[in-house]
Task: inverse folding
């Protein structure tokens, strides 16, 4: 399994536990809009904190935009950016 | 000032979700989202504290709906609910939120919050530059 696939699976697990989606995350593709799928602003805070715990990173204020947490793919891109900075 | 000069934001938060966040993430959640003053203002039994915190989160989101950031959203802590000695609450903006308000010519801000039956809500109304001098910061309550 590729590193990217592992990353996406971990993100999906965090979303499953914290995003409170109206539909199972397994039914959504990586580009699907999580806010349209029922994630509230407050749930996105939980997703952010859980991602920080899971990946040992911290989202800076510059990344606190709706688009950062809009989809599995967007979160993956943000995490890759954070991990490349801290590497 | 006319009705066209007003901007309104509203938000609704599930109090049980805030209680779960406090339980799951503890201080990390509190210190990432709320100011010291807000945390100090929301003490008490967990259910009561969660209701007060949820109302403040709703106030922050309602304010963001008025500020309408194009890019990065201001840190939640740059939008503070200040509790006055008489028990009423006002908004105080700092940092990126204050800069955004000035850029958009917004202010002053009026805030109303409530929580009941498991939900917390907040409404924020802002004037516009035509009736305001661009200073969004509210006075802190007396210590």
Result:
């Amino acid at each position: 399994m590729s590193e990217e696939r592992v990353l996406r699976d971990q993100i999906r697990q965090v979303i499953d536990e914290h995003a409170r989606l109206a539909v199972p995350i397994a039914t959504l593709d990586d580009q699907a809009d999580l806010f349209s799928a029922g994630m509230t602003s407050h749930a996105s805070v939980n997703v952010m904190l859980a991602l920080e715990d899971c990946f040992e990173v911290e989202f800076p204020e510059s990344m606190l935009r709706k688009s950062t947490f809009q989809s599995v793919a967007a979160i993956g891109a943000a995490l890759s950016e954070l991990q490349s900075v801290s590497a | 000032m006319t009705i066209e000069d007003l901007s309104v934001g509203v938000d609704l938060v599930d109090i049980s979700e805030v209680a779960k966040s406090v339980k799951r993430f503890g201080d990390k959640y509190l210190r990432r989202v709320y100011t010291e003053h807000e945390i100090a203002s929301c003490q008490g039994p967990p259910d009561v504290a969660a209701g007060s915190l949820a109302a403040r989160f709703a106030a922050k989101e309602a304010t963001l709906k008025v500020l309408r950031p194009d890019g990065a959203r201001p840190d939640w802590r740059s939008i503070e609910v200040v509790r006055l000695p008489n028990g009423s609450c006002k908004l105080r903006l700092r940092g990126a939120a204050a800069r955004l308000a000035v850029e958009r010519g917004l202010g002053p801000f009026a805030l109303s919050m409530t929580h009941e039956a498991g939900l917390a809500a907040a409404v924020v109304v802002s004037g516009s530059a035509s009736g305001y001098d661009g200073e969004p910061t509210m006075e802190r309550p007396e210590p």
Observations:
- The longest helix of chain A spans residues 3-18.
- Residues 3-86 of chain A form a domain with the Non-ribosomal Peptide Synthetase Peptidyl Carrier Protein; Chain A fold (CATH 1.10.1200.10).
